[in-house]
Design a protein that fits this description.
single chain, 163 residues, alpha/beta, five-stranded parallel sheet, 6 helices, 40% helix, globular
């Protein structure tokens, strides 16, 4: 059974993330979606809330597991006997950054982790969690950017930020 990890901060998960998850499942048998914190980012949703949003979208999907990890991703992957890391790419900037991480992950894992890049579908090239939060903050329509199952939660969190 081929198992892969797809890691990110997912604040919130977008249709672009979902697209990568669904396409990754054409390559692997099981996907572990790992929610992590990036010290460079400020979050609207805490770790558990982000996990719950993802779980809500993929509820009933037997080949998707949602988990969390604090620390180096390669440590999580070793603990879960997983050597395939999925990364989505929107543009050349993502490619450049993710290539650097792929080399680092390969080295840190003593050659055990390989990264598979999946380019985003064209309709999601400009979609990011930051973009979604900005739309939500200004009370704009989120259909097409986030799954309908979580729109209300995203808009409610935006209300809290607007005050």
């Amino acid at each position: 059974m081929k198992i892969a990890v797809y890691a990110g901060s997912f604040d919130p998960i977008t249709k672009g993330h979902q697209d990568i998850i669904e396409r990754a499942l054409k390559i692997v048998d099981k996907l572990i979606v790992v929610v992590m914190n990036n010290p460079k980012k400020n979050y609207w949703f805490n770790l558990d809330e982000r996990k719950n949003l993802i779980s809500k979208i993929f509820e009933g999907s037997e080949n998707i597991k949602v988990d969390e990890h604090a620390g180096l991703l390669v440590d999580f992957m070793a603990k879960n006997s997983c050597g395939i890391l999925i990364k989505g790419l929107r543009d050349v900037k993502d490619f450049s950054e993710e290539m650097t991480y792929s080399f680092a992950n390969k080295k840190l894992s003593n050659g055990e982790v390989d990264t598979v890049f999946i380019p985003t579908s064209e309709r999601y090239t400009y979609v990011s969690s930051t973009f979604v939060k900005e739309l939500a903050f200004y009370n704009q329509i989120l259909e097409g950017y986030v799954d309908g199952k979580i729109i209300e939660e995203v808009l409610n969190r935006a209300k809290e930020y607007r005050g």
